[in-house]
Give the backbone structure.
Amino acid sequence: MNFVSFALIFVGVMLNVAAQLLIKAGTNAIGYFEFSRENIMPIGWRLATEWHIVSAMGCYLLSVVIWILALSRVQVSIAYPLLSMGYVVNAVAAWWFFNEAFNPSKVAGIGVIILGVIIISRA
């Protein structure tokens, strides 16, 4: 895999991570809600106009374009597993930004993911 291919995959992964973090920030800004018949339109409007969530959708859109470019250069059996690095980055970022738990089980899981990505990337 050359540098451009790796960079496309990396940027795509980071855009997906950013989107997830923005969605979490948006739902934090809106607060807990339940969908009910009476509530679908007001909550739907709040979700559709919350800048974090709108930004997340933009990240997703851009990530799809970048992913298409990446797949035109790299086998999907190599590229797709690299998306799992998003779990690693996301876990660390969620701990940093949202004070989410970071315990030995997560560390072990992250280690397994990293090992798997290394093995697949060398295939």
Notes: The radius of gyration is 17 Å. Residues 3-30 form the longest helix (28 residues). Helices lie at 3-30, 40-49, 51-71, 76-82, 85-98, 104-121.
